[in-house]
Amino acid sequence: MQPLSNRAKQVDKKPMTLAERAYLPAIFQGLSITMRHFFMKKPTIRYPEEQRPFSPVFRGLHVLKRDEQGRERCTACGLCAVACPAEAITMVAGERKKGEEGLYREEKYAVSYEINMLRCIFCGLCEEACPKAAVYLQADKMAPPRFERDEFIYGKNRLVEPVSPDNRSKRGIQLTEEQAQQLRAKMDAQLA
Amino acid sequence: MLELPALGWQSIVIFVVFALSLLIATYCTYAERVIAAFLQDRVGPDRAGPYGLLQPLADAVKMFTKEEFFPSGANTALFIFGPCLAMITALMSSAVIPFGNVLEFGSNYFFLQGIEVNIGMLWVFGVVSLGVYGIMIGGWASNNKFSLLGAIRAASQNISYELAMGMSLIAVLMISGTLSLREITLQQSVAGEWHFWNIVKQPLGFIIFLVCAFAETNRTPFDLPECETELVGGYHTEYSSMKLGLYLFSEYVNIFVASAVMSVLYFGGFNFPFQYELRDWLVSNQDWTLAGAQNLITILGTVLLFGKIFGFIFFFMWVRWTLPRFRYDQLMRLGWTILIPLSIFNILLTGGLISFGIIQ
Q: Which catalysed reactions does the entry list for this protein (chain B) (predicted)?
């Protein structure tokens, strides 16, 4: 037979030598191997204190982006729900009323937008399907474990990103420095 | 010259030794897990307290609060008596081990030893071999075939290895001429000579003793009485709660005692090299009193004895995570056809060397 890896070992049943029968040399060999491992660097990551860095292309928990003026980008077109192979996304569309121009970017918006994280396979097809650059899968957050099934259905309260420019998700269209400052000034003015 | 220590002092020493054996056994459970982890490239328990140092406490709380389970058909009295006996015998044997030389205050001498008896070694081996009754009673009273098999294995294994152990000891006795552990220790430090520890005179005997100590304490590679892969849990399959805790605990106390006995018999006990030179240097150059220098040597010796003991305990754990378990027939063959002839040969060899005046 042709040797493939050059690592094949000839096995024979010749009687053991005295050193082999005495066990002790083999035991010392084994002890030295384990002692080497004793001083090796441990690959353990102590989870809550240390965290394994995510890959930049990691697809984690979804976020519904706001635009640079703090308005929701989603227009409830339903393309994400159609693209979703796991049928995890449901939404109810509504018409924007007068005076809500500061809240929603388009005339149509999602009254409710729910993603079932138990169904979601985190493929990212919703992100690709979205024409308004509204839904993104974040690279630095995961859907945490819960005790109850209904807690895995994420509504708009948990999906829409915060207004504050400092807490915006790192994924998707980013605010420029000036936009962030403008938004901050606007929010401060509203508060005052 | 040396007075008998007062009864009060003796009871203090016995209490301290008792507390120390328990403390060391407690932290052996922690050390075992950490050493096992390190040898397997893990980090071990580190959640409870700094570096997980409170882990034994958490384990104890767990053990105490678990359900006390009695199997149906078990002999309740014996079922309770088994772990008690295992623990009692494990703790009793440390009473005669000399943990240090003598402390001198004025005209009072304080021995750092529980009981000084001239049959110290016999005491240790008598009590340790009683320990197997704890296992046997527990395994038999459980009314479970796995427990019974584990108990039978424990009994036959201990009988097989105690023979070789006793005979390797006879060679030490031929050199020392006494059974008192204190005397044996003191003989390993002759002033003005190179301090011969018995390991130099008895290398073969030490190896036999070491192997037998592994078998006597039921440690891997001789942990057949409790091998999980074949017998579920061996003799403690049916045990739960603190009764199981006592069995596991007594194993660690036994390891501590076995390590102490090996340190005393073969590694000079509380002696350390150049102790007399250090004492004379302190007295002549540093204006220490003789008693003060002697006390310092005693304390240093005790600390070093514990260092030796901890070294052996580490070795026990190191071997556990290196070697796989023996098959039962291999275990018996090793005991009866290799170790016992070897220990008889060691006795003959020692006798020959003594009669030709090479060692004494």
A: a quinone + NADH + 5 H(+)(in) = a quinol + NAD(+) + 4 H(+)(out)
Asked whether the bond before A53 is cis by omega within 30 degrees of 0, the reply is no
Q: How far apart are CA B62 and CA B81, in angstroms?
A: 22
ipTM: 0.76
Maximum average pLDDT range among A106-110, B99-103, B269-273, B278-282? A106-110
Mapped onto helix, strand or coil, the DSSP state of residue B294 is: helix
The DSSP code sequence of B16-66 is HHHHHHHHHHHHHHHHHHHHHHHHTT-----SSSGGGTTHHHHHHHHHHHS
Q: How wide is the angle at C-alpha B55 spanned by C-alphas B49 and B59, nearest 5°?
A: 145
pLDDT, tens digit, for every residue of B43-71? Answer: 888 888 888 889 888 888 988 898 888 88
* A40 shares contact with chain B (CB less than 8 Å): yes
Substitution target in A37, A39, A50 with the highest count of B β-carbons within 10 Å is: A37
CA distance B297 to B85: 37
Per-residue pLDDT tens for B86-130? Answer: 888 888 888 888 888 877 777 777 777 777 788 888 888 888 888
Nearest to B318 among A34, A42, A44 (CB): A34
| Distances in whole angstroms, Cα of residue B96 to Cα of each of A78, B113, B172, B303 | 84, 7, 18, 18
Pairing assessment for the beta strands A108-116 and A89-95 based on DSSP bridges: antiparallel
- The reply to whether residue B40 touches residue A37, judged by beta carbons under 8 angstroms, is yes
Q: How many CB atoms lie within 10 A of CB A180?
A: 16
Binding-site residue set of A for [4Fe-4S] cluster: 74, 77, 80, 84, 120, 123, 126, 130
Beta bridge partner(s), residue B111: B102
Would an 8 Å CB–CB cutoff place A21 in contact with chain B? Answer: no
Residues of chain A with Cβ-Cβ distance to B43 below 8 Å are 42, 44, 46
Q: In three state form, how does the secondary structure of B182-209 look? A: HHHHHHCCCCCCCCCCHHHHCHHHHHHH
Percent helix, strand and coil across chain B, each to the nearest 5:
70, 0, 30
* Sign of the dihedral defined by the CA atoms of residues B200, B201, B206, B208, in that order: positive
pTM: 0.78
Task: Tell me which residue of A35, A43, A44 sits closest to B35, measured CA to CA.
Answer: A35
Cross-chain residue pair A42–B319, CB shorter than 8 Å: no
